[in-house]
Amino acid sequence: MQKLDSKIPDGPLADKWKNYKAGLRLVSPANKKKIEIIVVGTGLAGSAAASSLGELGYKVKVFCFQDSPRRAHSVAAQGGINAAKNYRNDNDSVYRLFHDMIKGGDYRAREANVYRAAEVSNDVIDHFTALGVPFARDYGGTLDTRSFGGVQVSRTFYAKGQTGQQCLLGTYSSLNRQIAKGTVKMYPRRDMLDIVIIDGKTRGIITRNLLTGEIERHSAHAVVLATGGYGTVFYLSTLGLGSNASAAWSAFKKGAFFANPSFIQIHPTSIPVLNDYQCKLTLMSESLRNDGRVWVPKQKGDKRHPVEIPEDERDYYLERRYPAFGNLVPRDVASRAAKERCDAGYGVGDTGLSVYLDFKDAIAKQGEDKIRDKYGNLFEMYEKITGINPYRQPMRIYPAGHYTMGGLWVDYNLMTTIPGLFAIGESNFSDHGANRLGASSLMQCCGDGYFILPNTISDYLADDIRTGKIPEEDKEFEKAEKNVSDRIKRIMSVKGKQTASSFHKRLGKIMWDHCGMRRDAEGLKKGMELLKELEKEFWSDICIPGSDRELNQELEKALKVADFFEVGRLMCEDALQREESCGAHFREEHQTETGEAKRDDSKFAFVGAWEFQGQDARPKLHREELEFKYVELKERSYK
Amino acid sequence: MAVAGLFLMLFLVFHLATNLLMLAGDGGKAFANAVRFLTENPAVKAMEYILFAGFLVHIALGVILQVHNYRSRPVRYHKRLQTETSQFSRYMIHTGVIILVFLVIHLLNFFFIRLGWVALPDHAESRHDFFSMAVVLFQNPWYSLIYIVSFVFLGFHLKHAFQSAFQSLGLNHTRYTPAIKVIGTIYALAISIGFSLIPLYFLFIY
Amino acid sequence: MDFKLKIWRQKNAQAKGSFRTYPVSDVSPEMSFLEMIDYLNKQIIESGGEPITFEQDCREGICGSCGLYINGRPHGPMRRTTTCELHMREFSDGETIVIEPWRSKAFPVIKDLVVDRSSFERVMHAGGFISVDTGSAAEANSLPVSKHNSDKAFDAAACIGCGACVAACKNSSAVLFAAAKIAQYALIPQGKAEAKERVDRMVKQMDTEGFGYCSNTYGCEFDCPKGISVDFIALMNREFFSSKLCKQIPGKYTRKV
Predict the structure, then answer these.
(1) Has residue C252 been placed in a domain?
(2) Can you give the residue range of the structural domain that contains A322?
């Protein structure tokens, strides 16, 4: 059995990273030129890492499935990016940001990693500003900040509702500079399908060229995965349709541990499903709950138009259940409450799967202009998608799968359990525990990519200065390539009747119903069975027209869906194992009398890291016990 | 393109001012004086060559632009572009060609005569008697019609050209650009109406 | 709702493409345009045909992947809207909808409705960045930037790189795309140091890629899903001329002895 060594350095929390970094080994400039690094994914984490490594002088190869690195789904983040700058003099500090994140994550994240993420957050803002990212500013020319859910300070830097886009364009610009310099070579339109391990070290990847269908070998001295989350396992989610788990999953199957797969954040305010062919849920920023009131009719199945329902027949259930926080309860609580009402038959809309978010009172009190000022672009977006004017009648919203706190297990160096394989950004598990706070995902991705990984990976590569180029003719490459080719051949040869999307949709429904916002042992077991059945059906009835030697989007989708069956099973497995409710993970069996989450710190204050044991065998659970020396474990209450 | 264009626009103003002297009602005396001054002044003579160059550069660039732009979309759309564009901007080459054709007729009538390349009409008093030539030509309604139509197209050309030249030169400002657009419209109207007044005068009033 | 879709089909970059007409019925007005094509594709696949290939990812109008030329307009009839945000309720029942890929020498068709926009990437490689290494940045607030310029830079930076400006331009010119980036950096002090080299290189690359020249028809602004203003093109022109006029001759600063 492999022992989980998180490599967390000793010493006081605030000095850990500083001291540890000082002791890391380096690679000399002359040697860096001889060392190749592969980065998969070009979101914030990936392009930040690739450009930094390029600046250092390494030979970097970057891969993405899109036609341009700028289209990675980091682009869709709206709200902002946190940093402990304390520009507002509101007594913010690195420690406070760290504390908020640990608490927001419901005490299931590693103290040392979270502290480090908070520590480098300020450098990220400095760097982005230097890169010309147009963050909002005040009239004096200094940066503006705003407050965000779950915290009492104003530490969120933003660029209107497009912070993710602007930050991504920042990292993209630094990537472009390195591409122009020749230190980074870009490989767009590639799906990574496997990693290659030679003598116990990660030495390359196998990709499929999406334009030609060619299976390619790419060798390097180390591989960095920045491949994002697996939220599209629910089919309907706020993610891009191309987002997938395949890269991380291939690493899992080669021996990398997968940590806390069941921790997946469900965002409470997204536009609900409007038609049967919908494949995407659009997020409406969390900030709307500052002024909107959430309600459902008091009468079951009330089909009246919302404006015709009188005040005393409305149930403002969040205000009723959580008088202290009202409509501003955290994401996980708001999501579960909405689901509870809809499941009980009070949901609105044709499907009965949505609740109202009403701005009537806010408009009456503050005036329409004020509301337009604050949320104009969101209201416009809502109207564009639904055709309904939210100034005149309430919005309809429903929770949607959003962000995966779980991911590949990494140590303090951000290295997985396979030597030479690193995971950064959303693809790792390390910083958000069981629930992520708003605006800290951008912060973590950029911190990982710009300021943490470049240091830790050099330490690893210090051993590789004499290795020389990794030959792509190695038999391990051959084996991995054959595996990939065989899998493609197998999936192409099914020649069934159903499309990949229709399988994905059914898979998503199983996951949503059995491993979604509320879980119980029976449902999870049932979910796993259903997944197995569906997977069997998939492998006997998937239909992929065309050939694998051309641009074939159906094949791309099918390969991703094939992995999601397995991801889904692992999620259920992990949710079943975790006999407590914490953060986004809610077990029906573990709730207080009033229906709130009940955490069990005595038994479950650990990271659940799963090890692959073979295609049909059950994966094996390893526990990394979490130690909390700098924060006190408390119960979260919003009553 | 823009620099040559702006230069030509400036020329048009002088040209119009001179021509409008024909409407002075003095039998073309003021006009003849102006013409004499212009033809005898060496500085103006030099400007003539620069003007010629200006025309050539403007036309050459216009053609190069058109050919390059046509080639940058080798496969055309099946459905014609429905995108709304700045007025007349799509038809610069078309109006330009019409103006060029007019220019050739115009030069045949006036300029080349002066150079002696084209024979002088019988009734003209001297090589510089443009006034009587104008009288003869404009009293022909067909010639006047061609003249007026050409200036209407020149108006369309200028309507886009004026503000476009400022845009191309990067002379843009939230405060002044709207004014430039208005001035451009007034300018285009003034040039096309101003020049059109001359044939109308000779047709109906003289 | 029922529609007749006339769609460009092209097997690969070398093949000669042609239009094919597909009837599609029982479309919900709530469907987005791309969901309508998904719906059609499902029927095509289930009846043994090859689905229509098109690009898409985020489906919320920010990634810039999607881009169809619908009834003579890039991204369809609605302004300030990407193809993925367009909904079927904007069309009338029974309508014939013509769908084509972007057309430009610099955007060759790869398959069906997918075009190769790597020319945009190369324009960015030429200068779409501020040369600053990780770790060398000064404290963020040590450099004040006027709010007006910063907001304006943001407006320019809103470009999603979809290529609608090129598709909408009668000259298939890419100046709005390049100008948006050049303007973003020219407006803020961080970008000033290399502003002249940047505009020079990016404009040159744009010409190399085979994009057309700008003739100020402003179709790009009209159909830009993010409403980026042609004012930025003027700003780019200004930068360009000043770079040309004020170009320094290298190596002329050492006095000869």
Answers:
(1) no
(2) 266-401
Domain holding C132, by residue range, is 117-245
B83 falls within a domain: no
In this complex, do B73 and C172 lie within 8 Å of one another by their Cβ atoms? yes
Q: What's this model's pTM, rounded to 2 decimal places?
A: 0.95
pLDDT in tens, A604-622: 999 999 999 999 899 999 9
Whether residue C250 lies inside any domain: the answer is no
CB within 8 Å of chain C, chain B residues 144-183:
160, 163-164, 166-172, 174, 177
How many folded domains does chain C comprise? 2
The CATH number of the domain holding residue A548 is: 1.20.58.100
Pair C135, C80 in one domain = no
For chain A, the domain total comes to 2
d(CA C115, CA C100): 11
The per-residue pLDDT for A1 is 47
Which pair of tokens denotes residue B56?
């050539």
Q: C226 near C82, Cβ under 8 Å? A: no
DSSP assignment of C169-232 equals: -TT-B-HHHHHHHHHHHHTSHHHHTTHHHHHHHHHHHHHHTT-B------HHHHH-TT---THH
Q: Residues A148-184: pLDDT tens digits?
A: 776 789 999 999 889 999 999 999 999 999 999 999 9
Q: Are residues C220 and C145 in the same domain?
A: yes
Q: Is residue A413 part of a domain?
A: no
- Min CA distance, B97 vs chain C (Å)? 16
| Distance of alpha carbon A537 from alpha carbon A373, whole angstroms | 51
Residue finishing a domain among C78, C111, C144: C111
With a threshold of 0.90, tell me whether the complex ipTM lies above it.
Answer: yes
